[in-house]
Specification:
By secondary structure, the protein is mainly β. Helix content is 7%, strand content 42%. The strands form 3 sheets. Strands 3, 5, 6, 8, 11, 12, 13 and 15 form an 8-stranded antiparallel sheet that branches. It has a 5-stranded antiparallel sheet with strand order 4-7-14-9-10, with no helix packed on it. The chain starts with a strand and ends in an 8-residue tail after the last strand.
């Protein structure tokens, strides 16, 4: 089996395991990423301690992404997905972002829409399922069509349908930074169903390991 990465420039292929998974941190390199920003390899970890983004070479539509992550005390990071623009700035920008945060010690942690596993600024997780800062967590993002799921440490903590009235209402009632894009009519990215993956470091230190992805079958009409 081969996992196909959709690219703006051309269509490339990267080897997948027999079960369909592709390791995005394979070996000692970071070949799956066109830009790594401040991120660098330390053993089996991809680490950053300053602001920046790692951007995937390929685009993904229907997929399951699994990753383990660790954040420092007070840290703020994220995993951005289905972002159509590979050159989007770290900030200001509107993204479909699986927020990563030290929920106990970070600034702005009072709003649950900014806590770990939220769709940043739009939708809060059902509960905090994270480990304390400095410990590794396991997470999943599952996207199929307009539907998406966020998982933390084996628990599904958030799900949404980007074509639903409930999602539109959540965007309209988002945090002030989200509302600024809504007011400008520039919130289409929150309904995107294809795009790049980005690992983000905002403040503090963040480390990723065991980052892998597999393609999912597209949903059937009416399914």
């Amino acid at each position: 089996n081969r996992f196909r990465f959709r690219s703006l420039e051309n269509r490339t292929e990267t080897s997948a395991n027999a079960d369909g998974w592709t390791d995005l941190l394979d070996g000692t390199g970071v070949d799956a990423w066109q830009k790594t920003g401040p991120f660098h390899r330390e053993g089996d970890l991809l680490i950053a301690g300053e602001q920046g983004l790692a951007v995937s070479r390929g685009q993904f539509d229907d997929f399951e992404l699994q990753f383990e992550w660790r954040i420092s005390q007070g840290g703020n990071a994220g995993v951005i997905y289905r972002q159509p623009d590979p050159n989007v700035p770290l900030s200001p920008a509107l993204n479909l972002e699986f927020q990563l945060l030290d929920n106990q010690g970070a600034r702005f942690n009072e709003d649950e829409r900014r806590q770990t596993a939220a769709v940043y600024g739009v939708l809060a997780p059902r509960r905090d399922a994270t480990m304390t800062a400095g410990q590794f967590n396991s997470s999943r993002i599952v996207c199929r069509g307009s539907r998406a799921e966020h998982w933390v440490n084996g628990e599904q903590v958030l799900t949404y349908d980007s074509e639903s009235p409930e999602w539109a209402a959540a965007i309209a009632a988002g945090t002030e930074d989200v509302k600024s894009y809504v007011d400008a009519g520039d919130d289409d990215v929150l309904r995107s169903q294809n795009g790049y993956l980005m690992l983000q470091c905002h403040t503090g230190d963040v480390a990723f390991r065991n980052v892998r992805i597999r393609e999912l079958p597209s949903p059937q009409p009416g399914g």
